[in-house]
Design a protein that fits this description.
- About 80% of the residues lie in helices and about 0% in strands.
- It is mainly α.
- Helix 4 packs antiparallel against helix 16 (about 285-310), helix 10 (about 195-205) runs parallel beside helix 12 (about 225-240) and helix 10 (about 195-205) packs antiparallel against helix 18 (about 320-340).
- The radius of gyration is 22 Å and the shape is globular.
- This is Sulfate exporter family transporter.
- InterPro entries: UPF0324_pro (IPR018383).
Length: about 350
């Protein structure tokens, strides 16, 4: 028998190479989660309850680690995968726990109110940006990011209006830092403003930048807050399509390009809606709901650690005073509009 016949065949295993690439970052995220879980357990042992749950602690610990140590490049792929893919999977799995009864509790006033709040926020954010001297394209990007869904809206709007890389970078500089601050501080407003679980979910859905961050802001409060917050945020995200279409009609002569459908309606939102539909139709076995919820929780905490590891608090200093003022004032106005809508909703 020839040596060629006995030589083992070379087999390409791209999935194995990819796993090796992701492993360092995944292990770092898991280490952050482990510390967060230990701190939560210590809180329970000392105080009888966890004032900061592991989900929030994972963000804080990750941010502290990132602020004092920049992970080497070999960690980047796993951190990015955890912050994006794992978080999107977690959001998709949330669809299995969504109750149509909770969705319809506030009635059509909520849906119409969300559209009105987004429209008002877009106009206010753009106006305040121009008043503070931001270039028109940057003011549009900041308005879209603040009013709809943070980086995703900026990424979708940028090619339509022909924004350059500098405009995009300046516009998204705040998303990571300010988004984490909102997630951490928003639950403190619930008792101060006397909000119930449904009202707090509406507030979170209308003010938090990204769909996954809504989960982080509402999970420590109640399951109803998670459901309503996710619903409200999804309605905001779905408004990205009409907004980008409008921008493309207005700015079509500037050479902008229409973004792909995947940017207007991300796959995990379609998955979320599909699972919610299956749940409503009774096609998801009850025995599967618990494991799905547990998996969503595990992936969420891992992704929160990754988000924290991706936060560099120094980006605020690089964003500039005008962008800082525009984003902060826009966020405050958005919060005020959200509270106004909450008081118009029927009591539950």
């Amino acid at each position: 028998m020839s040596s060629a016949a006995t030589r083992p065949r070379d087999v390409s295993l791209p999935w194995l190479d990819k796993s090796r690439e992701l492993l360092p970052g995944l292990l770092l995220c898991a280490a952050v989660v482990l510390v967060a879980e230990l701190l939560q357990a210590a809180e329970v042992a000392l105080f009888g309850r966890a004032w900061l749950e592991s989900l929030v602690l994972a963000i804080l610990i990750g941010t502290v680690v990132r602020s004092v140590w920049t992970p080497p490049k070999r960690f980047n792929a796993g951190i990015a995968f955890s912050a994006k893919m794992l978080l999107e999977i977690a959001v998709m799995l949330l669809g299995a726990s969504l109750s149509l009864r909770a969705m319809l509790a506030a009635g059509p006033v909520l849906l119409l109110g969300i559209a009105a709040v987004v429209a008002v926020s877009l106009a206010f954010s753009f106006g305040i940006g121009r008043m503070l001297g931001l270039p028109t394209k940057m003011a549009v990007l900041v308005a879209c990011g603040n009013s709809i869904c943070g980086n995703s809206a900026i990424a979708a709007a940028a090619p339509v209006i022909g924004a350059d890389a500098k405009d995009v970078a300046s516009s998204i500089a705040f998303t990571a830092v300010l988004g984490v601050l909102v997630v951490l501080l928003l639950p403190l407003l619930m008792p101060l403003l006397g909000l119930n679980e449904l009202q707090y979910g509406v507030l979170a859905g209308l003010t938090v930048y990204a769909v996954p961050q809504v989960l982080a802001a509402t999970a420590p409060v109640a399951a109803l807050s998670v459901q309503i917050g996710t619903l409200v945020k999804l309605v905001r995200v779905l408004m990205l399509g009409p907004v980008v279409l409008g921008l493309s009609l207005v700015a079509g002569r500037t050479g902008g390009k229409k973004p792909p459908l995947s940017r207007l309606v991300p796959w995990f939102i379609l998955g979320f809606l599909a699972l919610a539909g299956l749940r409503a139709a009774g096609l998801l076995p009850e025995a599967a709901l618990g494991p799905i919820s547990t998996m969503a929780g595990v992936l969420t905490v891992l992704s929160m650690a990754a988000l924290g590891l991706g936060v560099d608090v120094r980006v605020v200093a690089r964003a500039g005073a005008r962008v800082t003022a525009t984003v902060v004032l826009s966020l405050l106005a958005l919060g005020a509009a959200a509270l106004g809508l909450i008081h118009l909703l029927p009591p539950v």
